[in-house]
Design a protein that fits this description.
With 137 residues, this protein is mainly alpha-helical. It has a domain at 1-61: Multidrug-efflux Transporter Regulator, Chain: A, Domain 2 (Orthogonal Bundle). It has helices at 9-16, 20-28, 47-61, 66-77, 81-124, and strands at 6-7, 36-37, 43-46. The radius of gyration is 24 Å and the shape is elongated.
Length: 137
């Protein structure tokens, strides 16, 4: 007898951080397979459904569009691994570019903070510790 764990839509939402409406929307877009249903009509999901949804969430965080995610999942389901490879490689490059942009912004903020720290210490005679906030009341 199989003891595979099953989830209701609410549990899937809790585990993914998605609203149940979003999960249903993903089903309508065919990002998720049509779930089996209990006798009372409630959807039931398996671990593979949860894993797929978690991956969709991760891809969304990379700014990948739902259309591109659907295309990727279609290729994956069809065993077209070369296409999957190309899509993910492209998305990885996009994420890499975003990380570089964020790092550049972080570096600029660090530079500016350092300048203001020096100004405050030299003009106000106050020694600041790293990450110390200054009250400006």
């Amino acid at each position: 007898m199989s003891t595979e764990i099953v989830y209701c839509i609410g549990e899937l939402g809790e585990k993914t951080g998605l609203k149940t409406e979003t999960i249903r929307f993903y089903e309508k877009l065919e990002l998720m397979p049509v779930p089996n249903k209990k006798m009372n009509g409630h959807r039931i999901y398996k671990q593979r459904d949860l894993d797929r949804l978690l991956f969709i969430v991760k891809l969304k965080k990379t700014s990948m569009t739902l259309q591109d995610i659907k295309q990727y999942l279609s290729y994956s389901d069809a065993g077209q691994y070369e296409e999957c490879y190309n899509i993910l490689q492209y998305q990885q490059k996009e994420v890499e570019n975003e990380l570089k942009s964020i790092q550049s912004t972080y570096d600029l903020l660090s530079y500016k903070i350092g300048n203001f720290k020096t100004l405050i210490e030299t003009t106000r005679g106050v020694k600041l510790n790293e990450h110390q906030n200054i009250r400006t009341e």
